[in-house]
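Deliverable D4.2, example record:
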Amino acid sequence: MGTMRDKLDGFINMITKRGTTQDRNTHTSFVWTGLFSDKMNLDIYNGDGIGAKIVDAYAGDSTRRWVTINDDVKDEILKAMDSINTQKIIKDAVKWAYSTGAGVIYIGADDGAVDPREPLNENNLRSVRFLRAYNKNQVCKDITLRNTDPVSDNFEEQEFYTITPANGQSFEAHRSRVIEISGIETDGDTWSANGDFHISIFQKVFDRLAGLNEGYSAASDTLQEYVITVLKMAGLFQHMKMPGGEDEVVKRLDLLSMSKHSLNAYAIDADSNESIERLSTSLTGFQETLEKLEDSVSVASGVPPIKLFSRSGKGLNSNNDNELRLWYDDVESIQSEKLLDPISRICMLIQLSKDGPTGGVVDLNKTITFNSLWQETNEQKANNYKTNAEADSLYIDRQVLEPDEVAASRFIGNPDITLSDDHF
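Output generated by the structure prediction step:
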C-alpha cells in the first residue's frame, strides 16, 4: 500500500520559484497611504490642471443643463431658485465634494430664528434669503453629538455643523439649516476617521496623476535635449592633461558657442581634425506611452479621455459619441444619487416661504427632472425627422393612423415645431 502525499493545487516551478513561498507574487499586497489632508486636496485642485479638470467635469456636467420643475407656472419657482444662485451654489458644493470630500450648503432662511443653532422653523418661514457653499476644510462636525438612536430617522447624523467662512467668524448651525453633498463614498471606519465625511476623488487618482506628470516631465526633458551637438577634437584628453589645457578647451567651446549664436554656424579648423555632429534622440513610442498614462488617469477618475484630454479613447468601435453617452449616463446617476434631494429640499423651502412665489402653498405633486445632457446636432435632428417621416408615411398609407394623430404624437410639446389650430 502506497504512502499518502499532500496534493497541491496550482503550478509550481522550482526554477523560477513560481507557486512557492518564494514567489514574489504571493508577497504582493496593497497598502493604503492613508487620508489626505484638506490642504493637500485643495493644493491638488488649485495647483494641478488635470486634477482640477477631473473635479470640474463632475461639477460642471452634473449642473450644466440644470432642471425642469413640472407645473411650475411661468417658471416662478425656478426664478426664485435663480435669485439665490441655486445652480451655482450646487455646482460649487459638488466641486468641493469631489475635491475635499464634502460640499456643505448653508441655508440663509428668514424664519424668525435669532440663533442658527435652532432648528429651521418651516411653519414660520418667510423666505430663503441666500445660500452659501463651503468645502470640508471650512466645516467641522462634533462627533460627540452624533445621533446614536438606531430607530431614529436621523441615525448617525450630526446635530450641529461648525462652519468657518473665509476670513469670517465661525458659527454653529443646526442640521436642518445645512445640506451636505458627499464626495467619494468610503467605508464606515474611514468615514469616521475623516470627521464623519467621505473622501476626495484625489485619493483614488493621485498615483495615476503623479505618474502622468512624471511622464510629461520626462517628455519635456527629452525635447530639451532632442538634439545634442558633439565636438570631436583630436587628442582631447592628452591636451587637457597639459598645463592650461583645460582653459584652452573651455575657450574653444566658448568661441564655438559665440559663432553659433552670431552666425548660426560653427567655425572649425579644417587642419586640426575637428568635426561637429548633431545627434538627435528618438521619440518613437513617446506619444503612445503618454496616452497610456492619460488613459490610466481616465480609468481611475471615471472621466473619459474626450472630456479630460480632448481626444478619443482607444479600442474597437471607439468614438466620441459613445464615450460621451456613457459619461452622461454616469453623470445622470450622480444627479439622482447626490443632487436630487438637495435641490428638492431647496425647492420645498421656496414653496414653504410665505413671501415666495407660491405664498407658502406646497404642491407635493411637483417633481424635479434633470434636463438631458445629450444634445443632438442639426444634422442628427434632420436625419431623425427624415426617418420618422418615412415611418409616419407608412402608418398613414396603410391606414394605421390618421394624419392628425401622427401630427399630435410627433409634434405636440416639440419646442422646434409649432402647430396651428387648423391641424386639429
